[in-house]
Amino acid sequence: AALSEIAETSGRDVMKISASVLQKLLAALNECTEWGQVFILDSLAKYVPGDAREAEGIIERVTPRLQHANSAVVMSAVKVILSYMDVMAAGGGANAENIRALTRKLAPPLVTLLNSEPEIQYVALRNINLIVQKRPSILENEIKVFFCKYNDPIYVKMEKLEIIIKLVSEKNIDQVLLELKEYATEVDVDFVRKSVSAIGRCAVKLERAAERCIGVLLELIQTKVNYVVQESVIVIKDIFRRYPNRYESIIATLCDNLDTLDEPQAKASMIWIIGEYAERIDNADELLETFLETFEEEDPTVQLQLLTATV
After folding, report:
1. DSSP string, 127-179
2. Alpha carbon 101 to chain centroid distance?
């Protein structure tokens, strides 16, 4: 612990782990307190094993820590295993089966962390967010545990949404869309906006599901809730950019809701859509004129988008 603190304050690695020190650290794991285990595991995470066999041996000694009651010990053990899995992967296809087995072992302890207090959940979710960016296969079948509960604090809900987007696939998209549609009717405005934005990100990520995502967005626009309509217009612009000339049939619905737009980003998005598909909108010039009337009072982003669209 002292050496770790010295290394942190000095910015230098003062603890060089040799083969003999490594064995002593692994032996000490079973004898020290939980916070001692955290410091040992963090030191092991910085150690680079010589080969895949050594990495596997250390992982074998660290794996029991995944069942520990202290969430910090669990997260430190996960960190060690993930960093050593890279060494095993570099060893070639012979280790593929072992890596798959480790992947299966990592999911339960990570899911268990989500039954803790909200503060611990939040820290766990931040770490899980990083883990799924690198190895989404670890939690690809556990997306349901990231669905938001009604009594989750807003900061936990926001993190869960980020993870849902990273884990969404063609196998679970229908389930996810039902959830996101439900979230879009909640009372917290920021959470609703994030949920609508998440539907758009799913469409951009999964081409085959884009049409279903647009269907949900159109249903949400029909609710006529101001901030829902505005966020929907913003994400539909992103979908149009990702899949040009594919979903123009919904432009008429968007034009019908022109009067509800009062936020700069939503206005700029709508202007971009009108400008991009002007030849398919009969009264495109009239629609742009409605924005030009208030040109001088508009936000710079809206002004720039208007200039681009009119050209």
Report:
1. HHHHHHHH-GGGSTT-GGGGSPPTTS-HHHHHHHHHHHHHH--TTTHHHHHHH
2. 25
Contact 189, 207 (CB under 8 A): no
Q: What percent of the chain has pLDDT over 90?
A: 38
Look-up: residue for tokens 């595991």?
41
Residue 215 in this model has a pLDDT that exceeds 60: yes
Per-residue confidence (pLDDT) for residue 15, from 0 to 100: 56
Structure tokens at 54: 């050594």
- The answer to whether the pTM exceeds 0.90 is no
Taking a C-beta distance cutoff of 8 angstroms, is the pair 225, 184 a contact? no
Q: What are the angstrom distances between the C-alpha of 255 and each of 214, 221, 245, 300?
A: 16, 11, 17, 22
Determine contact, residues 43/25, Cβ cutoff 8 Å.
yes
Q: Which residues contact 148 (CB under 8 A, 6 or more apart)?
A: 156, 157, 160, 161, 179, 183
Q: Which of 98, 162, 96 is nearest to 133 (CA)?
A: 162
Does residue 267 contact residue 229 with C-beta atoms inside 8 Å? no
Contact 206, 212 (CB under 8 A): no
Is the Cβ–Cβ distance between 167 and 146 less than 8 Å? yes
Contact call for residues 113 and 71 (beta carbons, < 8 A) = yes
Nearest-CA neighbor of 293 among 306, 311, 281, 308?
Answer: 306
What does 229-292 look like in DSSP terms, one character per residue?
Answer: HHHHHHHHHHHHHHSTTS-GGGHHHHHHTGGG--SHHHHHHHHHHHHHTGGG-TTHHHHHHHHH
